[in-house]
Design brief:
Layout: H1 2-6, H2 8-42, H3 44-65, H4 68-78, H5 83-114, H6 116-120, H7 122-137, H8 140-145, H9 150-170, H10 179-202, H11 212-221, H12 223-246, H13 249-266, H14 270-286, H15 288-315, H16 317-324, H17 329-339, H18 342-358, H19 363-423
Helix pairs in contact: 2-3, 2-9, 2-14, 3-5, 3-7, 3-12, 3-13, 4-5, 4-14, 5-7, 5-11, 7-10, 9-10, 12-19, 13-17, 13-18, 13-19, 14-15, 14-18, 15-18, 16-17, 17-19, 18-19
């Protein structure tokens, strides 16, 4: 293993992983500090209200992102030695995101005139939308592509700490729930300004003239990733939307509280996936046999470590609920137990789906698996939630993730075997 790390490509992957892991670690730690405070200050029902609003706005985030976090990262990684090409990719992707941001704003204000809930909590919804726009216009994908994550790591780290401090300063009573939208908005704005200035000064990239055909090409290139991202967000947020419609803010608060714990552990693998993606982008192209072998090795180690950690979460779910939330202990504890295996499934799904299928140019297969999973989830979510409330929602998420894992694994294994036959 240490001989491999001496190799430059492994050093780059390891360095990016450590930078991403630092940010992710802080990002996971800070909510563990603020969540108990927030629930006690604004109440579980307002937590449900904010979770519901975040779920609605997340769909705008998918539209603006459009899968560029994967397609643009891959393009940057494969053209890193050409400054002219880097400038073209940076400009075209940023223009495309600006166009999609404008569409999102227009659609949001149309919704504002027709949806009473948005009118009643306009500051919350609009702040969350601006947060999504600013965050998606910040070119983190560029830094991942050139595999230079130190700067963006420091910026993200600083802004997250400041956001935590602002939470303790501003959120004091029940009616202060709207700050949970305003604070991320301020955070996203400064992230956008700082990263744009840095890219201009350090990489000497400049905006060229706006060309519709180039924007169209970028959107066309990422259409299958975009559709797959819609599914992922549909799956992650649709459940909360249905739970909120079928039940009330209390059950949304219970589910979102348990889901927050599960997502903390699911997010642990984000640095691994993000650091490995540009690496496997070239590895799958150049040496499929070695890529498949390394992928399976990572899957085995990750499965063992993750399963042990989630067993501890399952065992101490009630204590976690008491320390973190201090209310609705039994309900939240049950949901944590049900969903405790999900982070393991998400980790394996990302390896065989994102790392292998997407880098093997099998976007359509990846998309169809997610579409089938979305259909399965939609079929289950209504009766499960209607009869069993948040417990039913949790089981719907679990079953869908199991389906995605088996589908991604067998599809990637089949593609791997076909590629070996073709090479032979």
């Amino acid at each position: 293993m240490f001989d491999k790390i001496k190799n430059n490509e492994y050093k780059v992957v390891l360095k990016n992983f450590l930078n991403l892991a630092l940010v992710q670690g802080i990002a996971l730690l800070l909510p563990l500090i603020t969540t108990p405070y927030i629930i006690r200050k604004i109440g579980l029902e307002n937590v449900g209200l904010v979770a519901f609003a975040s779920s609605v706005i997340a769909y705008f985030g998918v539209l603006i992102n459009y899968g560029f976090n994967l397609t643009a990262t891959k393009d940057i990684a494969q053209n890193v030695i050409s400054k002219q090409r880097l400038n073209e990719i940076f400009c075209d992707v940023t223009y495309a995101k600006m166009l999609l941001s404008t569409v999102s704003l227009l659609f949001f204000f149309i919704l504002f005139f027709f949806v009473k809930l948005i009118q009643e909590h306009f500051i919350l919804y609009f702040s969350l939308l601006l947060s999504v726009i600013f965050t998606n216009l910040s070119p983190e994908w560029f830094f991942q592509g050139v595999q230079k994550m130190q700067f963006i790591t420091r910026v993200n780290l600083t802004l997250k700490v400041l956001a935590t401090v602002l939470t303790f300063i501003l959120v004091k009573k029940t009616s202060d729930y709207f700050y949970l939208g305003l604070i991320p908005c301020i955070n996203g704005f400064f992230l956008f300004i700082i990263t744009q200035f840095y890219i201009y000064k350090v990489y000497k990239l400049k905006y060229h003239s706006f060309k519709i055909i180039r924007i169209y090409n970028e959107l066309d290139k990422g259409k299958y990733i975009f559709l797959s991202q819609i599914k992922i967000t549909f799956f992650n947020n649709f459940n909360i939307l249905i739970l909120g419609i079928v039940t009330n803010d209390f059950f949304v608060g219970v589910f979102s509280s348990a889901d927050k714990i599960i997502k903390v552990f699911s997010s642990v693998q984000v640095p691994v996936v993000s650091a490995l993606f540009p690496y496997f982008a070239s590895k799958v192209r150049d040496n499929k046999r070695k890529a498949w072998k390394e992928l399976n090795k990572i899957a085995i180690y990750g499965f063992c470590i993750y399963t042990f950690c989630m067993f501890l979460v399952f065992s101490f779910s009630e204590k976690i609920a008491i320390v973190m939330f201090g209310t609705a202990i039994t309900e939240i504890s049950i949901l944590i137990k049900i969903m405790s295996i999900i982070p393991v499934l998400v980790f394996l799904n990302n390896l065989y789906g994102t790392q292998y299928l997407l880098n093997a140019q099998k976007d359509k297969i990846f998309l169809w698996i997610l579409i089938k999973a979305a259909i399965l989830n939609t079929i289950m979510i209504f009766p499960f939630t209607y009869y069993f409330q948040a417990v039913g929602t949790s089981f719907s998420v679990l079953i869908t993730e199991l389906f995605v894992l088996f589908a991604m694994y067998f599809a990637s294994k089949k593609i791997y075997k076909i590629s070996l036959k073709n090479e032979g």
